[in-house]
Amino acid sequence: MRRHSATCGRKNPSAVVQASHVSHEKPSEAASAHGEARPLSAGKSGPLSGSVRVPGDKSISHRALIFGALSTGTTRIRGLLEAEDVINTARAVTALGAIAEKSGDEWTVKGRGVGGLSQPAGPLDFGNSGTGTRLMMGVVAGHGIAVRMTGDASLSRRPMRRVLGPLKQMGLEIVEDGKETLPLTVRGTQHLVPIVYELPVPSAQVKSAILIAGLHAAGETAVIEKEPTRDHTERMLKYFGAGVRTEVKDGKTHITVTGHAEMEGRDVTVPGDPSSAAFLACAALLVPGSDIIIEGVLVNETRTGLYTTLTEMGGDVTFLNERDEGGEPIADIRVRSSKLKGVRVPAHRAPSMIDEYPVLACVAAFASGDTVMAGLAELKVKESDRLAATADGLSVNGIAASITGDTLVVHGTGKVPGGGTVATHLDHRIAMAFLTMGLASEKPVTVDDTAMIATSFPEFRGLMERLGATYG
Ligand code: S3P
User: Fold this and answer.
1) 338 and 419 in one domain?
2) pLDDT at residue 30 above 60?
3) Which of 187, 242, 354, 426 could pair covalently with 146 via S-S, beta carbons 3.0-4.6 A apart?
């Protein structure tokens, strides 16, 4: 994409979100909200225009709450994502003795210091969130407490061995030994041992869980990654005062954290989530005559693979007014509708756009020619099997897509027939991807449920409609 630093003149207020005061609420609204299906259709839309802000980045929001809880003093967070996944993490840290609450337009976390959290009174419910669960497993590992962790049907199917394996090597105990999915009970220890661990899968969640546990261990814990994954944990640990260093040796990244860390509460401003902005950006590319700006979006290069790919497809995507905010690069992203061509997306790019493949596949359906997306094994273990759900959703809407191993090929013809109903499998990103596709398809596209969208992007429909999209 093109990058320059001109300031854009248009301004719109950021989305207004209902705040929840976590400490007095029931464990999970997700469970009840997700009880009844709420289908929705997206039909052909007029041009999208205007400037909007997307809510705060989900990855950074989880981490701000967790590092605030592990620091001494108060952490103030502006722009925290107030979606179910993050609210469940706020509840979890509160149940462990750090108080996370909203006051005015910011959140505060009164931390307990590394190793200072306490036994919760009941189970911790993480709803739909793999990130919340896995990062908090790293937290529990370093405390002499036993914690029951639960989640919804989607989360209860997701693999936890990838985190439990290394944490067990450090000293975590799984009470129901051998069990590798939620619900399960884990018992931590104040005597964790440091490890050096090479990630078998490119996962920022696994990396982060080990580094968080390492804060509590005696000595240095190192994680080695062959392919770089999102680095918010490393950046934020440094910002909170922990000892972290990153070195590249023999083409691999070694991240080392010093144990028995001391961290101090800090002020955090959460930038806009590029994974949420993706739906708006893709909609603007697809709907003829569109021209939008998404303000204040995180453009850390471990997260911008989609934007690189869209540009290679011929998309008119520009990063404006690039700047730094709270240790992360941000920009305003301008997107204008474009004629697109199919491309080959290299496997090494997957970690930097892992959550964006469903919407990229929907965009590829409108391109001319094939788009080949390689290295997608991790998509099979997200909130749903996203590889299968994406291919099925395309095929019920008249687009040929094939899966060979971990490669997805979408045969773009420039036009999408639409008219199908997509099974979302409790997956927010499948729902939003196809509600984006329907805005430019010949016949409306229906998704069987939208309730899960609240786990990451409750403002999705409102923001799309503000830009001019029509749903019904
Ligand atoms: C996340 C990492 C990614 C991503 C998830 C958030 C994080 O998962 O899919 O939505 O905040 O660390 P993996 O690291 O397991 O691929």
Assistant:
1) yes
2) no
3) 187
